[in-house]
Amino acid sequence: MEVVCAGLSYRSAPLEVRERLALSGEAQDLLLGQLRDQGLEAVVLCTCNRAEIYAAGPAAAEALEAARAALCERGGAQAQPHLYEHGGEAAVLHLFRVCCSLDSMVLGEAQIFGQVKDAYERAQAAGSAGGELSRACQAAFACAKRARTETGIGRAATSMASAAVDLSRRIFGDLHGRPALVVGAGEIGELAARHLSQARCKVVIANRTRERAEALAAQVGAAVRPFEELHALLHSVDLVVSSTASPAPLFTRENVVPAMKARRHRPLLLVDLAVPRDVAPGVHGSAEGVYAYDVDDIRQVIDENVAARANEAAKAEQIVAEEVARYVRARAVRDGVPVLAQLRQRAEQIARAEAERTLQHLPELSEKQRKSVEAMGMAIVNKLLHQPTAKLRALDPSGQPSPLADAAAELFGLEEAPPKAAGGKS
């Protein structure tokens, strides 16, 4: 079972393509079931910046093709040119880097680790997180924890939410007392509310489930307004940070332009952190003073802060390399054990068969003497297999599995039927 990965991310695909693969929880469950029914282990990872399938199966090429086909089926022809693929150690390396937020738009952000764990737990619940993929995910989680502990990659890391606040300062300057609306009380909405509160904005929260909005408001000292008043709130707030799971845009030219007239064209900034987008394309500049930015626009703000964490990222990359090598070594031992077991089984069967054949011609031997002949055969097997066993368990310094396992299987004909004891049919 070899781990493979197919997917697209902010590095390979524009936002309008990523939106097509923003799968709901129900859609992810259906996809996991489909891959499971094809005999594959699978984990589906969907975030605002990536859509990936990690899979494992008896045939790596078939597993990769199944993952690719599933993404193309859901993303359409537009998605296909933007897909990337990884197999074997490259797929494991990619998974580890994703978990450590080394492949994130926001280098060092903490959210992706939780998102991968959630994806793995969803796969477990669906019965698609099998042995090899589970081992890879658990190793990736351990690697991410080590990177957080041993480096400063996560310290003061710019999140999407904090980048949104930085962008707001560029438009308005000091945010003290500025009325701000947070739409959505999920993880990103919570971070946005906290950052805006720390910037001393007057924060208002609107969420479809009022109870969640009230719970968050109590934590950050914000007010709560009904979700149904969303568009009316545009008359009074200056800044909107939106991150919901809405399948259609919440803010369009049709509801933003009338609000600007009521505001007497006082500037309005809408920062859209959702995928699919909460703010429709074309809202930016639809009226004088309207500014709208999506997750790809936020990248510019984030990139300015990447250099400061470059040294810590290099340390984290070294940890990833070490942990991938550890995983590869562990897998090599697992892969080598069947060859060792088969080789010993074949040798012992031959020794028993030859001892039995010899003893048939020596009926005068006592029971003790007969056992001595049999023991001699096993001793010869043990001495002959001592060095091959040590070699097959060995790994080269690069962490690659020993190439002797396949050679041993071929040289000793381990795929052939084992010899039978004397008297049996050949």
Explain this structure to me?
- This protein is of the alpha/beta class and 426 residues long.
- It folds into three domains: 2-155, Beta Polymerase, domain 2 (2-Layer Sandwich); 160-302, Rossmann fold; 335-389 and 403-426, no CATH class.
- 54% of the residues lie in helices and 12% in strands.
- The protein is built from 15 helices and ten strands.
- The protein has helices spanning 15-18, 25-37, 60-75, 89-99, 111-126, 131-150, 160-172, 187-198, 210-220, 230-233, 253-262, 295-306, 310-360, 367-393, 404-411; strands at 2-9, 41-46, 50-57, 84-87, 179-183, 202-206, 223-224, 239-242, 268-272, 290-293.
- Strands 7-6-5-8-9-10 form a six-stranded parallel β-sheet.
- α4 crosses α6.
- The longest helix is centred in the last third of the chain and has 51 residues, at 310-360.
- The chain is elongated, with a radius of gyration of 30 Å.
- It starts with a strand and ends in a 15-residue tail after the last helix.
- The model is unreliable at 395-401 and 416-426 (pLDDT under 50).
